[in-house]
């Protein structure tokens, strides 16, 4: 059968392949406001770690925490030699762990205080690492929650929240965001406490005999601890996304986080693979943009300033020349600062990507498990709902039309 020429057919690829929403999540991560929020979160995290280390509760174990998410590598073949000679200092490009992508890189960076907590050599290291982990959780419950809220509204409602509105929205639900993983940790501690006490009794031979007879009970308790630990390790980003999208409490975030991890593990694995591949492409774009921006700026300025001038001002980070005045040194320090900000946007881009990707995966799992449309998102009471204008029926014809905004008269 031949279709009439005036009939147009099209395919809604997002309906056929819902996981294409992950590409939109990558677009959210590339928004300037999202990258700025991620950098603010990194600055707050580093500042808190520094304060903890310098406090009486500080410990040298905090010095082993990685400050950077990515690696910085000098390159010598990406640009022509003439360009290398014209720009002061080595050309650098920043990149994340290309093996597993920015999702795993940012996840590992976020949980590293808790990971090292399990290997603490003494109680001092344990306390310092626990405080560092709690501080990271508190910081990213605010900034990560704000990014997840931006992603949730954009992916469902098609609108973009401003950074201040996102921070206010995240702050309102901050207790729920923080409380979800902490409640799971508390439950793990309660279940593990009898096992620890059993381990103390195991020092005596008679108790070893009794525990051997009841070892199956200990194994059941260990299985419960393992289920909670694995669910928390994998599902805590989904808990953040639950609060950001549903505006619910910590208990609902825990319920959804564990359900979505254990009920659709293969779906979750597939979404993680796709999100990781898209994240690698997004990371490459950010790395290239940061490198091209700094290189083009330094090259163009060096043409006018003369070879070696930027190096004398300390823009390359190697110190200011003795011939430069204090005014020039201040200007060079400002140039060096803003150059590092641009490079930091690439180094810490994985932290900007983690939350939009987690939110998109949450929406996909919610659709598959709860049969909820991916266009549904909750708003707080009194929170303005941006989007399409309201329709109202025309008085004469009854045809819906765009409602005129109400105007206040004095």
Distance between the termini: 65 Å
- What is the number of helical segments per DSSP (H or I, 4+ residues)? 15
Cα gyration radius (Å): 26 Å
Integer count of domains: 1
The low-pLDDT segments are 71-98, 405-410
The counted number of beta strands is: 4
Could you give the order of the helices and strands? HHHEHEHHHHHHHHHHHEE
Mean pLDDT: 80
Structural class: mainly alpha
Walk across the major sheet and give the strand order.
Answer: 1-2
Strand content: under 5%
What coarse outline follows from CA principal-axis ratios? globular
Largest sheet: 2 strands, antiparallel
- Helical residue percent band: 55-70%
Structure description:
The protein has 410 residues and is mostly helical. The protein has one domain. 67% of the residues lie in helices and 3% in strands. The protein has 15 helices and four strands. The strands form two sheets. Strands 1-2 form a two-stranded antiparallel sheet. The protein has a two-stranded antiparallel sheet with strand order 3-4. A hairpin with a 6-residue loop joins strand 3 and strand 4. The C terminus is likely disordered.
Please give the structural blueprint.
Blueprint: H1 13-16, H2 21-29, H3 32-54, E1 71-74, H4 81-86, E2 92-95, H5 101-117, H6 123-157, H7 163-172, H8 174-201, H9 205-213, H10 215-246, H11 250-263, H12 265-305, H13 309-312, H14 326-347, H15 349-370, E3 391-393, E4 400-402
Antiparallel strand pairs: 1-2, 3-4
């Amino acid at each position: 059968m031949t279709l009439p020429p005036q009939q147009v057919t099209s395919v809604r690829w997002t309906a056929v392949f819902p996981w294409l929403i992950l590409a939109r999540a990558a677009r959210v991560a590339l928004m300037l406001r999202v990258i700025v929020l991620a950098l603010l979160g990194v600055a707050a995290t580093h500042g808190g770690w520094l304060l903890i280390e310098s406090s009486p509760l500080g410990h040298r174990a905090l010095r082993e925490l990685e400050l950077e998410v990515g690696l910085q590598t000098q390159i010598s073949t990406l640009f022509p030699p003439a360009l290398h000679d014209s720009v002061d200092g080595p050309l650098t490009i920043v990149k994340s762990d290309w093996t597993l992508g920015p999702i795993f890189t940012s996840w590992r960076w976020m949980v590293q205080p808790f990971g090292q907590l399990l290997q603490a050599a003494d109680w001092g290291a344990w306390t310092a690492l626990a405080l560092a982990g709690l501080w990271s959780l508190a910081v990213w419950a605010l900034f990560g929650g704000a990014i997840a809220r931006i992603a949730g509204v954009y992916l469902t409602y098609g609108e973009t929240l401003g950074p201040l509105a996102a921070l206010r929205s995240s702050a309102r639900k901050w207790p729920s965001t923080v409380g979800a993983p902490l409640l799971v940790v508390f439950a793990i501690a309660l279940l593990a406490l009898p096992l620890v006490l059993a381990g103390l009794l195991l020092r005596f031979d008679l108790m070893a005999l009794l525990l051997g007879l009841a070892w199956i009970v200990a194994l059941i308790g260990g299985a419960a601890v393992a289920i909670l630990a694995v669910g928390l390790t994998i599902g805590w980003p989904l808990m953040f996304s639950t609060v950001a999208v549903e505006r619910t409490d910590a208990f609902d975030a825990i319920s959804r986080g564990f359900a979505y991890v254990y009920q659709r593990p293969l779906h979750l694995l597939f979404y993680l693979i796709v999100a990781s591949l898209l994240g690698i492409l997004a990371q490459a774009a950010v790395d290239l943009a940061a490198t091209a921006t700094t290189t083009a700026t330094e090259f163009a300025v060096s043409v006018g300033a003369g070879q070696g001038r930027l190096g004398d001002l300390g823009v390359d980070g190697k110190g200011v020349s003795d011939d430069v005045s204090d005014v020039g040194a201040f200007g060079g320090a400002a140039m060096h600062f803003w150059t590092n900000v641009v490079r930091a946007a690439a180094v810490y881009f994985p932290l900007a990507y983690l939350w939009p990707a987690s939110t998109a995966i949450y929406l996909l799992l919610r659709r598959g498990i709860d049969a909820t449309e991916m266009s549904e998102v909750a708003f707080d009471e009194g929170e303005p709902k941006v989007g399409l204008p309201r329709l109202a029926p025309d008085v004469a014809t009854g045809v819906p039309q765009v409602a005129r905004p109400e105007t206040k008269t004095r």
